[in-house]
Specification:
By secondary structure, this protein is α+β, with helices and mostly antiparallel strands. The protein is about 55% helix and about 15% strand. The strands form three sheets. Strands 4-5-9-7-6 form a five-stranded mixed barrel. It has a two-stranded antiparallel ribbon with strand order 1-2. Strands 10-11 form a two-stranded antiparallel sheet.
């Protein structure tokens, strides 16, 4: 049996869920989930580009209840607690609870923490004093962040697809010109943006990460929203096309560190995507279970039918395994997230775990949501019931923060160049089967490059399954 509340599964894994997090979950159960359902039915949010006097304002026309739902998490400390407690774990705990009810809402929190952490690590003292306090606030003036990397030609190959150009303007100020095609959380008060240094060739070495405020120093809008994207799901996060025309920005970190800072931000988000994916799969299981206990067919409730009952057990086991992998990536990230280049071997171990978790949990999410729709039968395809929405939401998760192929190739790169599989083995060597992790990694390294690329998905999935087998012992010592 999978517990019917998000907090119960967290506690099942020995994760402390404090009173503040439980109160936050209670709010979602009492009120938040109904707001979330209404926002999803509303469809794509409208954009008001101009006020009545012709001034550009780019205002998002959500109902007031949306903002109540969104800022409930900020007030509960989804961002603030990372800086209060010097740990990312509260962010992912509150994120799991959020995503159980609405993975779209977790996206603004994710891109905000992925803005705040690099600002905290790499921003000048002046930038931190000006922009960090409202980003990590619980009350009063609360700002949101955003991470804008992707452009129209794609997001995986940033070295060749980023055409936004950054030009120095003196006194630490840079001017950015370009477009971001898939910009989540448009309307954010500050964003981190990938841009290419003017005059430098294509390639990741010419990229840098910039902090870009919503308003220029003279108070005018610093970026414009061309349109809001009509998406299949996650309608609770506004995603749009952003135009940067002589936008003011500030470089974060050293010039030569640009691509590393970009990837740091993305890796925080990849772990969040993993947590959100498992939470959605968990919710899909609960919705299927709720339905199956009361749907009567062929003489008994369908949950009692042997084949479907076995499927519930199998899916429950897959969800627990996926959570174990996701949480292992949280633990690994929490140990290294304040590191700066050049990174330790522990950081590359985290990278491999993050790629494995993102790759596996997103697929489990889609599988669970599709299965939950089938359990509901005809009721599963109707918009008025939850299974249909869960599948729409799940379909986005394998794409956010890099497709499955991107995770496979980056994960294998960490093995071949950084021996990251050895780090995973060392983390888990006390458990039976850990040696298989090392063996698969060494097999990958021994292959010639073409053979490795042709077999990459098969090899990587074998590595994931070997890791899951070991993690069952660490997190699920009692047989299910």
């Amino acid at each position: 049996m999978i517990p019917e509340r998000a907090s119960k599964l967290l506690q099942e894994f020995g994760i402390e869920v404090d009173r503040e997090a439980l109160d936050y979950e209670d709010w979602w159960e009492r009120k938040g989930k109904f707001i979330s359902e209404s926002i999803d039915r509303m469809g794509t949010v409208q954009l008001r580009m101009f006020d009545r006097w012709g001034n550009r304002i780019d205002e998002l026309l959500y109902p007031p209840e949306y903002w109540d739902m969104l800022f409930k998490g900020y007030r509960a400390g989804v961002i603030a607690r990372t800086f209060e407690e010097e740990s990312l774990k509260p962010f992912y705990i509150l994120g799991y609870i959020t995503s159980f009810y609405d993975p779209g809402v977790y996206c603004p929190y994710t891109v905000t923490i992925s803005t705040a952490v690099p600002l905290y690590k790499y921003g000048s003292q002046e930038l931190k004093e000006k922009y960090l306090p409202p980003l990590i606030a619980r009350d009063g003036e609360i700002w949101q962040g955003a991470t804008w990397m992707t452009e129209a030609k794609g997001g995986s190959d940033l070295g060749n697809t980023v055409e936004t150009i950054a030009e120095p303007a003196g006194n630490g100020l840079w001017i950015l010109n370009g477009e971001k095609y898939f910009a989540s959380n448009v309307g954010a008060e500050v964003a981190v943006v990938a841009a290419r240094i003017k005059g430098e060739p294509l390639g990741v070495r010419s990229l840098a990460l910039f902090l870009l405020p919503k308003y220029r120093r003279d108070g005018s809008l610093n970026y414009h929203v061309r349109r809001i994207k009509p998406k299949i799901g996650t309608r609770s996060v506004p995603t749009g096309e952003v135009e940067l025309k002589d936008a003011e920005a500030y470089m974060l970190g050293k010039r030569e560190w640009g691509i590393y800072l970009i990837l740091e931000s993305l890796n925080i988000s990849r772990v969040a995507n993993s947590i959100g994916s498992v939470a959605l799969a968990h919710r899909a299981w609960v919705e299927a279970y709720t339905f199956a206990r009361k749907r009567f067919a062929f003489g008994k409730y369908i949950y009692e039918q042997p084949l479907l009952n076995r499927q519930f057990q199998d899916m429950g086991r897959e969800i627990r395994e996926a959570f174990a992998l996701a949480w292992e990536s949280v633990e690994a990230l929490n140990e290294v997230y304040l590191e700066k280049p050049r990174y330790s071997s522990r950081y590359h171990t985290f990278r491999l775990l993050a790629h494995m978790a993102k790759y596996w949990t997103a697929e489990v999410s889609v599988k669970a949501a599709k299965w939950a729709m089938e359990v509901h039968g005809g009721m599963g395809v109707l918009e008025e019931y939850p299974a249909e929405r869960l599948l729409r939401e799940a379909m986005i998760l394998p794409i956010w923060e890099g497709t499955a192929h991107r995770q496979v190739l980056d994960g294998i790169e960490a093995i071949v160049k950084k021996d990251a599989h050895i780090g995973v083995f060392e983390r888990l060597r006390q458990y039976d089967g850990a040696e298989e992790i090392r063996r698969i990694g060494e097999e990958m390294k021994a292959m010639d490059e073409l053979e490795r690329e042709r077999e990459a998905d098969i090899l990587f999935e074998s590595l994931v399954k070997a890791t899951l087998k070991v993690l069952r012992q660490k997190y699920m010592p009692v047989p299910l």
